Structures are given as C-alpha cells and as structure tokens.
C-alpha cells in the first residue's frame, strides 16, 4: 500500500488521483524553474516495521508496485565492494558500481518502475526528455516490456547514448535546443497524446525507483548505515532518492540515523551547491562541464536535493573538469571500475575532502554510469 504526498503543502493523493506534480502547488511551476509540488511516495511505515524481518528481509515492502507488473529485466542488485586503495588514513571506502545496470546507468532503476507503472495503467507508450542516460534506460526497459519509448533529446547528447536508445527501438526526436526545450516538448506531447511522462522528478516514481540503490547499500553493508555517501548531482533526483531510501528505513524504525549525503557538482554546473550556500536559487546560465550527465541549467529537483543535504547534515563539494578526468583515471587504474565522467565526479569529490573526514568513517562512492557511455570524454583522461 502506497500513496503520494506533496513535499510542499503535504496534501495526500492516491495513485488513481494524480501522476505528476501536486495539482495545487504544481500550478505555481513554470518552465525554466525547479519543479514545485514534487510528490513523494509514502507507505504505512508502522505496518512495514511490523512485517519486516531483518533475518529474512522482504524489500518489496518498500516498493509501490506489485512484482507482477515488472517485466523480466533485472535491474539493480549491483555490486558494492570495499576498496583497499581508497580506504586509506583510517577510512573505510566502498564502491557501489551502478554502471553495471543493464543499460549502463543508475537511471534503469527509475525507468523499470515507470515501465511497471505503464503496465499497471495499461499504457503502451512512455515519453521522456533526457540528455542521455534516462533516455537510454527508458529505451532499454521499454524494449524489455515491448512498449514504445518516445524520447526528446538535445542534439548534443553523447553519441553512444543516442545510438543505444535508437538500437533499443525508441522513437528518438532530436530537439534543436537544450534540455529545457526537450522537457517542454515532452510535456506538450504527453498532453496531446495522453501517454505516461517519465521526466525526472516530474513523475514521483522516478525518485521512488532510484531509492532502491539506498536500500541495497544498507543491505549490502550488513544492514548498517554508512557515514557518508558521495553522490554526483545534476537535477538532484538521485541524491533525493538516496535520502528517501534511508528516510523510509528510518520511518519504519529499522535504522536510527541517516548517512550524511555529499552533493558533488561540477564547477561549471553548480546550481544546487550555490543554492545550499546562499539559500537562494539561481539557474546556471551557461552550464559547462565534461560530465554531460550532471550538466544542468535548472535542476528540476533542486528543492528536494537541498533538503536531502540539509536534513542529513551533509555538505556540497565542487570539482573541476580536470579533477573529474583525473578521478576517472584513478578509479579505473586503482580499482578496475570504468565510470563515466559524471560518476567519476563522486570520486573527485571524495578526493577533495577525504583528509577532513573523521577517522573511522565509512564512505560510499556512488558510481552512477559506465565509462563506455562516453568514450570521447574518457579519451581526454589519457592525455
Ligand atoms: C543522471 C545522472 C547523474 C545525476 O543525477 P541527477 O538526478 O540528475 O542529479 C549522475 N550521474 C549519472 C551517470 C547520471 O546519469
Ligand atoms: Zn502541494
């Protein structure tokens, strides 16, 4: 049993009443601003607390949809391993390699839940706007369920990602403009054709799907909460989903504290870091970073991303493209894990602060996407 609650006004809705933003608060949202009235999925936490058996955990208690709606397409359950190389100076450092999802990024976690939702609703098509990974994830998950993925992408998306979505049979529409233009086009299309829209944070199940990475980290650490999780941040959905996962565990009284979430952003695309510092939101007029997956003008989930950092008493770190490329190479050369530049940003952020972390801290570096997704960027790391 799950339903939705507005993160702004607290109004509650059933999944039959609404799919997207809060019908009240969402009216205040205009294109070019962070989304307002993003919904969160809530559960009967008391019932979960009663039913959950730590000896024999049933993680489906934390899923809004019955297992029968999911296509046969295993997503998640990616490896978490301790890195001796990164565990220096008394730190305990773990790598969560989410680049090993079927389409090569953490975005599969959101897309598979959206596909399950489309099947529940009897819909044959899902639409999204994306700069790359969300779209290739949606294309792959839709292919697995044999439903149509219609994708609006800016023409600047990396080649491998564009090829990947086309090969999976998606209906790809290249938009002459940036992500915001693609976002608007996808909303128009959804209104016109009545399809399901997977835009990140716009549909609450995109957050809920990505939450599973937090539940896995907790399970894989032997049902322990790490001290710090380093998350690369663009739109701010992954970091709020990691927060949501631990919040659900806390609400069900399975844990007593939250991990500190570290928001890692590229210097040239740091709207959320700025927001955290100044308390005022400003778009980044001209985002510029080699890490395409975290290059964002107006982070759609800026408000919840800020909450995730503030409520976990985390912090933000900025990293240069040079540091991202160095971290990409370091991660590959020292652990064998090849992450795309956005994923390597988590490592670069860790490198900036590692000497200041309390001895004995456990840290998780969230590797969000595979390095083969953008070979041209990786080639720069060799120079
Ligand atoms: C989408 C993405 C991110 C950032 O996630 P947001 O929810 O936009 O903050 C980071 N890394 C990779 C590889 C991604 O695809
Ligand atoms: Zn509301």
Produce the secondary structure layout.
Layout: E1 2-6, E2 12-13, E3 39-43, H1 45-51, E4 80-82, E5 92-97, H2 108-121, E6 125-129, H3 133-145, E7 148-154, H4 159-167, E8 171-175, H5 179-193, E9 196-197, H6 204-210, H7 212-220, E10 228-232, H8 237-251, E11 260-266, H9 271-278, H10 302-311, E12 315-319, H11 321-335, H12 341-353, E13 362-367, H13 375-381
Parallel strand pairs: 5-13, 6-7, 6-9, 7-8, 10-11, 10-13, 11-12
Antiparallel strand pairs: 1-2, 1-3, 4-5
The structure holds pyridoxal-5'-phosphate and zinc ion.
Pyridoxal-5'-phosphate is lined by residues 105, 107, 133, 232-238, 293-294, 340, 342-343, 368-369.
Question: How would you portray this structure in words?
Answer:
With 383 residues, this protein is α/β, with parallel strands linked by helices. The protein has 3 domains: 2-69, no CATH class; 80-103 and 206-382, Rossmann fold, CATH 3.40.50; 108-203, Rossmann fold (3-Layer(aba) Sandwich), CATH 3.40.50.1100. Helix content is 37%, strand content 16%. It has 13 helices and 13 strands. It has helices spanning 45-51, 108-121, 133-145, 159-167, 179-193, 204-210, 212-220, 237-251, 271-278, 302-311, 321-335, 341-353, 375-381; strands spanning 2-6, 12-13, 39-43, 80-82, 92-97, 125-129, 148-154, 171-175, 196-197, 228-232, 260-266, 315-319, 362-367. A 6-stranded mixed beta sheet has the order 4-5-13-10-11-12, sandwiched between helices. Strands 8-7-6-9 form a 4-stranded parallel beta sheet, with helices on both faces. The chain has a 3-stranded antiparallel beta sheet with strand order 2-1-3. Helix 4 (159-167) links the parallel strand 7 (148-154) and strand 8 (171-175). Helix 3 runs parallel beside helix 4 (159-167). The protein is globular. The mean pLDDT is 95. The structure holds pyridoxal-5'-phosphate (PLP) and zinc ion (ZN). Residues 105, 107, 133, 232-238, 293-294, 340, 342-343, 368-369 line the site of pyridoxal-5'-phosphate.
């Amino acid at each position: 049993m799950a339903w939705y609650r507005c993160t702004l006004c607290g109004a509650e809705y059933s999944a039959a009443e609404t799919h997207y933003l809060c019908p009240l608060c969402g009216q205040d949202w205009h294109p070019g601003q962070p989304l307002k009235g993003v919904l969160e999925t809530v559960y009967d936490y008391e019932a979960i607390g009663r039913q959950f058996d730590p000896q024999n955990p049933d993680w489906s208690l934390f899923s809004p949809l019955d297992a029968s709606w999911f296509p046969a397409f295993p997503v998640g359950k990616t490896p978490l391993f301790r890195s001796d190389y990164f565990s220096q100076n008394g730190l305990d450092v773990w790598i969560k390699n989410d680049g090993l999802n079927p389409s090569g990024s953490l975005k599969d976690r959101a897309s598979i839940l959206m596909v399950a939702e489309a099947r529940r609703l009897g819909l044959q098509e899902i639409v999204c706007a994306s700069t790359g990974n969300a779209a290739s994830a949606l294309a792959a998950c839709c292919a697995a369920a044999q439903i149509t993925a219609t994708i609006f992408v800016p023409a600047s998306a990396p080649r491998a990602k564009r090829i990947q979505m086309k090969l999976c049979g998606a209906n790809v529409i290249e938009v002459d403009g940036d992500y915001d233009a693609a976002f608007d086009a996808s909303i128009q299309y959804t209104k016109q054709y009545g399809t399901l829209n997977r835009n990140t944070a716009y549909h609450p199940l995109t957050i809920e799907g990505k939450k599973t990475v937090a539940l896995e980290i907790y399970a894989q650490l032997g049902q322990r909460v790490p001290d710090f999780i380093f998350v690369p941040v663009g739109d701010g959905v992954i970091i709020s989903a990691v927060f949501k996962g631990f919040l659900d565990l806390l609400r069900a009284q399975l844990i007593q504290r939250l991990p500190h979430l570290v928001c890692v952003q590229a210097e040239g695309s740091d709207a959320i870091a700025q927001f955290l510092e100044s308390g005022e939101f400003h778009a980044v007029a001209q985002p510029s970073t080699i890490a395409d997956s975290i290059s964002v003008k107006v982070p759609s989930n800026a408000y919840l991303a800020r909450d995730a950092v503030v409520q976990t008493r985390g912090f933000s770190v900025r990293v240069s493209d040079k540091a991202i490329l160095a971290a990409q190479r370091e991660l590959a050369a020292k652990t064998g894990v090849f992450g795309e530049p956005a994923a390597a940003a988590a490592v670069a952020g860790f490198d900036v602060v590692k000497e200041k972390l309390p001895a004995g801290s456990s840290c998780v570096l969230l590797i969000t996407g595979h390095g083969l997704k953008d070979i041209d960027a990786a080639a720069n790391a060799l120079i």
